[in-house]
Write a structure and sequence with these properties.
The chain is built from nine helices and ten strands. By secondary structure, it is of the alpha/beta class. A six-stranded mixed beta sheet has the order 6-7-8-3-9-10, with helices on both faces. Helix 3 crosses helix 4 and helix 8 packs across helix 9.
Length: 250
């Protein structure tokens, strides 16, 4: 199976603060990967380096065989990144917004219209296609931003807290959509503080703390690493991160 993403000893500092420290991981294509960690652990910085928005101080990111350092354009064409607070152009209607984003990716207008219609219908936004985005709730804006991320049909989708602001029905809709996206052979990498999402959807989970990868594997493998057989992901997560904090203080 092809490697979708490979991080090779990447590091990033902000002044004297080491946000990510010598982080390496590998994610296969067609998988759902959850990157978890406490606040300030380095999750968002890691995602931004994967997306090419931040340059690592050292190390490299390979996206489907393309180096984000040496071939950034080819690497970025295969992925989409949705931040935790996405920017929506409030004076545009959903169709206008998606056609604009599609144009940035070089998609011709007839195809862009077809793709936009399909995605808006999938996300239950079609009936709001004529409304200005400034009238949308936060959850509706979150779904529209996801539609914008999907418009160029990326093979890798990078999501930072994607369910923020969604009600229960919208969250289920997005989770089902992401599951189908992975079933089609694509790759999802997300961060979340909602452990139930990672526990139910992710095939593999990475846990970082203080910028370092402290544990990785399936849920059962993480249970073994933590010594918490049969425990929930929340219990495993707390055990691993708290033990790491204690070890770091010794």
């Amino acid at each position: 199976m092809e490697i979708a993403l490979q991080l090779s000893q990447i590091s990033k500092s902000y002044g004297s603060h080491q946000a990510v420290n010598n982080l390496s991981l590998q994610i296969t294509e067609g998988s759902f990967y959850a990157l978890l960690g406490p606040n300030g652990a380095g999750k968002t910085t890691t995602l931004r380096m994967i997306a090419g928005l931040l340059r690592p101080d050292k190390g490299d990111v390979m996206i489907l065989g393309h180096s984000i350092r040496r071939a950034p354009q080819k690497a970025k064409q295969t992925l989409a990144y949705l931040p935790d607070e996405p920017l929506i152009y409030n004076k545009l209607r959903p169709m206008e917004y998606l056609e604009f984003i599609a144009g940035l990716w070089g998609i011709n207008p007839p195809k862009a219209q077809i793709l936009a219609q399909e995605i808006l219908k999938q996300l239950n936004l079609w009936n709001h296609r004529g409304d200005l985005s400034e009238t949308f709730s936060r959850g509706m804006k979150q779904k529209l931003a996801l539609a914008g991320a999907l418009i160029h049909q990326p093979r890798i989708l990078i999501l930072d807290e994607p369910l923020t602001g969604l009600d229960a029905a919208a969250a289920r809709l997005v989770k089902n959509m992401l599951a189908e996206y992975v079933n089609q052979g694509n790759t999802v990498i997300l961060t979340t503080h909602i452990m139930e999402i990672a526990e139910r959807m992710a095939q593999r989970i990475g846990i970082i703390n203080h910028g370092r990868l402290i544990a990785e594997g399936t849920l059962d493998e993480l249970r073994t690493q933590s010594g918490e057989a049969g425990a929930s992901l929340e219990t495993v997560f707390l055990e691993l991160t708290q033990n790491h904090d204690v070890e770091g203080a010794i």
